[in-house]
Amino acid sequence: MRPPTLVTHLTAFFAQYLPAERNVSGHTVEAYRDAFKLLLRFALAATPRAGRDVAFEALSPELILRFLTDLEHTRHNSIRTRNARLAAIHSFFRFVLLRDPALAAQCQRVLSIPTKKAGHPVLGYLSADELGHLLVQVDRTTPAGERDYLLVALLYDTGARIQELLQITPQDFRFAAPACVRLHGKGRRERLCPVLPQTARVVQRFLATHRRAEDDTTPLLQNRHGAALTRHGARYLLSKYVSRARLAMPSLNRLAISPHTLRHTKAMHLLQSGVPLIMIKDFLGHVDVTSTEIYVQTDVAMKRQALEAVGTPCRVGPAARRTPTDVLAWLDAL
After folding, report:
1. Fewest CB atoms within 10 Å of the CB: 73, 96, 203, 283?
2. 165 pLDDT band (50/70/90 cuts)?
3. Measured between alpha carbons, how far is 131 from 272 in angstroms, rounded to an integer?
4. Can you give the pLDDT at residue 334?
5. At the fourth CATH level, which superfamily is domain 128-303?
6. Residues classed as catalytic
7. What is the CATH class of 6-111?
C-alpha cells in the first residue's frame, strides 16, 4: 500500500476535514485554498525538477519561511496577511499530524514557526461632516447612483463588514417598525441589526425602483449584469466617490478610506454618543469585547475631554524678566 502523498492529504483536508468535520465557512475554505495555491507555486518554482508534483517532504520549515518572506518582500503583503497564510498552513499540518503520525517530526517543526508580531495602526474614521460630504457626491438620479448611495449608507448605518453587506437580500429586512436587518457574520454567526426608519425607506424605494419584491432572495446590491456586487466592485465604487469628495474637502486626504473605514466610523460615532462598549460589541458582531476595546484608544477628542476633566496642577507663571539691551527701545515698547 502506497503511503499518503501531499495530494492525498490536501484532498482530505479541503474536501472532508474543513467543510464536514470543522464546518468552516466557504470564505475560510477559499482563504486556505488561496494560501496553498501560492505556497505550491512557490515550491514548484523552488524545486523545478519536481515537475507539477510537490512531495510532502519538500514543504520544509525552511521553504515555508522563504515563502512567507517572499509574500512580504515580493508580493508586498502586510504582516497580517502573512500571518493569515501561516495560519492556513498550520491548520493543514495539525491535520496531517493527527492523520499520519509518521510525518510527526516534520509537522512539529512547521508548527513551531511563529507568527510575526504586527503593529497596530491607529484606526481612521470620518467625522459627521466628512461622511455627509461623501454621500453628497453620489448622483441619485440614476439607478446605479441609487445603488451606490445605498451601498455607502448601509455600510455606515449597519456597521457591517463588506462581505456581510454584500450577502444581504431583500428578504433579510424587516420593514415593519422597529425595522431591522439580519446579517450573516463571520463563523456562521447571525445577528439582527436595527435600521433607522429613513434608511428602511431608502431600501424600500430602491426595491420599488428596480421592481423587486421585499421577499426576494437574491443579493440586494448587484452589478449591471444582475450578479452580486463583489468586494472589489464595492471598493471601486467607494473609491470613486472618495476621490470626488477629496477635491472639496482636503481633510479626507489624511487617511485611506475603504469599506471597513465606514464600519470604524459607525463604531466611533456610537462611542462618542455615549453608547456602552458592550452594546457596540453586539452591534458590530464581535465575539469578545476585547476586539471592541480598540475604539476606546482611538478618539483623540475623547482623550482630550478626559484630560480636561481631570485637570492639571501646572500653571503658566509670569514671564521671565530680561534685561533690555536697548533701553530706549524698551521704553518705547511699554
Report:
1. 73
2. very high
3. 15
4. 65
5. Intergrase catalytic core (1.10.443.10)
6. 161, 186, 260, 263, 286, 295
7. mainly alpha
